[in-house]
TrEMBL record:
Segments traversing the membrane: none
InterPro entries hit by this protein: SAM-dependent_MTases_sf, UbiG_MeTrfase
Highest taxon listed in the record's lineage: Bacteria
SUPFAM superfamilies: S-adenosyl-L-methionine-dependent methyltransferases
NCBIfam families per the UniProt record, alphabetical: UbiG (TIGR01983)
UniProt KW keywords: Methyltransferase, S-adenosyl-L-methionine, Transferase, Ubiquinone biosynthesis
Reaction catalyzed: a 3-demethylubiquinol + S-adenosyl-L-methionine = a ubiquinol + S-adenosyl-L-homocysteine + H(+); a 3-(all-trans-polyprenyl)benzene-1,2-diol + S-adenosyl-L-methionine = a 2-methoxy-6-(all-trans-polyprenyl)phenol + S-adenosyl-L-homocysteine + H(+)
Name of the coding gene: ubiG
Enzyme class: transferase
Name under which the protein is recorded: Ubiquinone biosynthesis O-methyltransferase
Length: 246
C-alpha cells in the first residue's frame, strides 16, 4: 500500500462530525453546550506550555515560545486551542471534520485579529507536513480508524517535532462520570461520548509505537469538588501525553 493511500484512509465518522457541527453556534459561549471544554482548555494549555518549554528549551516566562514555529491542531472545533497557540507565536493551521466548526472558527479568529489557516476535511488528505507542534485533543475517541488517524497525524509531524494528545481513559470511573453522569446532568451534550471507543494509555502507547512514535508518561486530567478539573497522577478519567518520533 502506498503512503498516500495509507494517509488518505477515511477516519471521519459522518455522524460524529454532524454532532459536533451542531455545537458550532455556541462553541465560544463559556456557559453554553461546550462549557466543559472551556473548563478543560486551561488545564490542557498548562500541560502543552510546559511540554513546549521542555521540548524546545524555551523560556518558561517567555510570551512567544512558538515564535518561528509551525503548529497544527487537528479536531480544532471552533478554535479554543488554536487561538491561544497562535498567541504563543505559532504560524497556526487547524483542521476539523465539521464545516460548521471551521466557519465559526474563522469568524472568531477574524474578530480577534488572529491569522489562523483553518481547513475542513480529513487530516491525511490535506497534504499537511513539517509541523513543529501537532496537537489533537479529545479526538481519537471519535474517529473510525484509530491506527489510520495516528498514521495521518504522524505524517504531519516534522523532524524534531512535538505532538500532544489527550483522550478519555476507558475505565469504570469514566463510564460512570463522563458518559452516564456528565451527559445526564447536561454538563456535556448527549451522545458526545461512546465509552467503548475510549482508549487506554497502554493501547495508545502501542498504536503510537506502530507508527514509530514514542509516548511520554501520561498525565491525568482529574476532577474534584475543591480543585475542579486539574492535572493529576490519577489517569482514571482523562489523560494527556507528549509524543515524539522514536
Amino acid at each position: 500500500m502506498s503512503n498516500a493511500t495509507t494517509l488518505n484512509t477515511p477516519t471521519i465518522r459522518p455522524e460524529e462530525a454532524a454532532h459536533f457541527g451542531k455545537l458550532a453556534a455556541d462553541w465560544w459561549d463559556p456557559k453554553g453546550q461546550s462549557a466543559m471544554l472551556h473548563k478543560l482548555n486551561p488545564v490542557r494549555l498548562a500541560f502543552v506550555r510546559a511540554a513546549i518549554d521542555a521540548h524546545f528549551d524555551t523560556d518558561p516566562n517567555g510570551i512567544k515560545p512558538l515564535a518561528g514555529k509551525r503548529a497544527l491542531d487537528v479536531g480544532c472545533g471552533a478554535g479554543l486551542l488554536a487561538e491561544p497557540l497562535c498567541r504563543l507565536g505559532a504560524a497556526m493551521t487547524a483542521v476539523d471534520a465539521a464545516a460548521e466548526n471551521i466557519a465559526a472558527a474563522r469568524a472568531h479568529a477574524q474578530g480577534a485579529g488572529l491569522a489562523i489557516d483553518y481547513r475542513h476535511g480529513e487530516v491525511g488528505a490535506l497534504g499537511l507536513s513539517g509541523f513543529d507542534l501537532v496537537t489533537s485533543m479529545e479526538v481519537i475517541e471519535h474517529v473510525a480508524d484509530k491506527a489510520a488517524f495516528l498514521r495521518a497525524l504522524a505524517g504531519t509531524l516534522g523532524e524534531g517535532g512535538l505532538m500532544v494528545l489527550s483522550t478519555p481513559n476507558r475505565t469504570p470511573a469514566s463510564r460512570l462520570l463522563m458518559v452516564e453522569g456528565a451527559e445526564r446532568l447536561g454538563l456535556v451534550p448527549r451522545g458526545t461520548h461512546h465509552w467503548d471507543d475510549f482508549v487506554t494509555p497502554l493501547e495508545l502507547h502501542d498504536l503510537l509505537a506502530a507508527q514509530g512514535l514514542k509516548m511520554g508518561n501520561p498525565k491525568g486530567i482529574a476532577w474534584s469538588p475543591r480543585k475542579g478539573l486539574h492535572l493529576s497522577d490519577d489517569l482514571a478519567l482523562n489523560y494527556i501525553v507528549t509524543v515524539t518520533r522514536d
